[in-house]
């Protein structure tokens, strides 16, 4: 999160207001460095999606505005640029909802994402290599894909934009834990192979902190703490409220009972 020449994205004191009256996020600041996997975690309504919408330029569709602060991507200010312009600058978003066109096949979904280009076929091959399940379902309607396959397809569509920065909104939503773990592992592999930088939004804090280098926690439209994943995993409040674990060093009743039992048996 250092602000140096490796900074790809710099968000400073960002404020977003919906419908001219309702402030969703305020004073949100963070930096994402080149090659980093940065996770933004927080409960429902904390402002995670709003932050990604602001970066990708999709606020206007929801009658929202950036009312303060700025977003700088590779030295260029993004505030109020149109989504297609931001995409062409190298940012692709996998949105929270409506990720794929349900009435088109997998192959067609990839085809409509970006117009034909020389690299397109190569990227498409890469997507099918990372997600062989998509290849198997190449000619199936996206509406009949499983939740995990839809997430894979949505990630594939974003990759076709040849992004430098990939924004992912809740790719784990509704998926079984093992599928989440596989999907996130593939993402990390992709990030390294394709030189991507990833900003990931997740309610599943455990899954996010497992793969992220750096993370920030949002509550009520603000970032309340941030740090390396290791630092957050050791943070008492993060452990208690986001990971459902006990505070570090604290023992539960079951631990103490277990300890007494083992003393009686072995001691
Ligand atoms: N289209 C909208 N119109 C008005 N208010 C909105 C709109 N979208 C979001 N909000 C409000 O903005 C705040 C932040 O919402 P946001 O969707 O960014 O949260 P989130 O962290 O992504 O939550 P979740 O984990 O449930 O997806 C909430 O108070 C929400 O009610
Ligand atoms: Mg959201």
Describe this structure in words.
- The protein is of the alpha/beta class and 267 residues long.
- It has a single domain, classed as Rossmann fold (3-Layer(aba) Sandwich), CATH 3.40.50.300.
- 39% of the residues lie in helices and 26% in strands.
- A hairpin with a 3-residue loop joins strand 1 (7-18) and strand 2.
- Helix 3 (106-113) runs parallel beside helix 6.
- It starts with 6 loop residues before the first strand and ends with a helix.
- Bound molecules: adenosine-5'-triphosphate and magnesium ion.
Task: Explain the layout of strands and helices.
Layout: E1 7-18, E2 22-33, E3 37-42, H1 48-56, E4 64-73, E5 76-77, H2 83-89, E6 91-94, H3 106-113, H4 120-130, H5 132-136, H6 147-159, E7 165-169, H7 177-194, E8 197-202, H8 205-211, E9 214-219, E10 222-228, H9 229-233, H10 236-242, H11 253-266
Parallel strand pairs: 3-8, 3-9, 6-7, 7-8
Antiparallel strand pairs: 1-2, 1-4, 4-5, 9-10
Helix pairs in contact: 3-6
The structure holds adenosine-5'-triphosphate (ATP) and magnesium ion (MG).
Magnesium ion binds next to helix 1.
Provide the CATH topology.
Rossmann fold
Q: Extract low-pLDDT stretches.
A: 255-267
Supply the CATH superfamily name: P-loop containing nucleotide triphosphate hydrolases
Q: Give the mean pLDDT.
A: 88
Sequence of secondary-structure elements: EEEHEEHEHHHHEHEHEEHHH
- N- to C-terminal distance: 49 Å
Which architecture name does CATH use? Answer: 3-Layer(aba) Sandwich
Shape: globular
Bound compounds, each kind once, are: adenosine-5'-triphosphate, magnesium ion
What structural class should be given to the helix and strand makeup? alpha/beta
Total number of domains: 1
Biggest sheet record: 6 strands, mixed
- Could you tell me the radius of gyration in angstroms? 20 Å
Relative helix content: 25-40%
CATH class: Alpha Beta
The number of strands is 10
Number of helices: 11
């Amino acid at each position: 999160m250092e602000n140096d020449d490796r900074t790809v994205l710099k968000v400073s004191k960002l404020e977003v207001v919906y419908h001219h009256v309702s402030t969703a996020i305020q004073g949100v600041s963070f930096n994402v460095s080149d090659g980093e996997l940065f996770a933004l975690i927080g409960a429902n309504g904390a402002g995670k999606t709003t932050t990604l919408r602001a970066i990708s330029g999709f606020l206007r569709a929801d009658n929202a505005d950036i009312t303060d602060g700025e977003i700088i991507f590779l030295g260029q200010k993004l505030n109020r640029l149109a989504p297609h312009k931001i995409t062409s600058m190298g940012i692709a978003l996998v949105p929270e909802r409506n990720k794929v066109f349900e009435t088109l096949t997998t192959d067609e979904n990839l085809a409509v994402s970006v117009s034909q280009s020389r690299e397109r076929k190569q990227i498409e091959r890469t997507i099918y290599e990372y997600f062989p399940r998509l290849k198997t379902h190449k000619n199936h309607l996206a509406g009949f894909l499983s939740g995990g396959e839809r997430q894979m397809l949505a990630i594939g569509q974003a990759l076709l934009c040849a992004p430098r920065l990939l924004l992912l909104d809740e790719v784990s939503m509704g998926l079984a834990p093992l599928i989440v773990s596989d999907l996130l592992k593939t993402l990390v592999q992709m990030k390294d192979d394709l030189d991507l930088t990833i900003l990931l939004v997740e309610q599943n804090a455990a899954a996010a902190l497992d793969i992220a280098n750096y993370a920030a926690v949002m509550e009520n439209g603000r970032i309340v703490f941030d740090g390396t994943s290791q630092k957050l995993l050791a943070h008492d409040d993060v452990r208690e409220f986001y990971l459902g674990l006990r505070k570090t060093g604290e023992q539960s009743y079951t631990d103490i009972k277990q300890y007494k039992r083992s003393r009686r048996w072995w001691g």
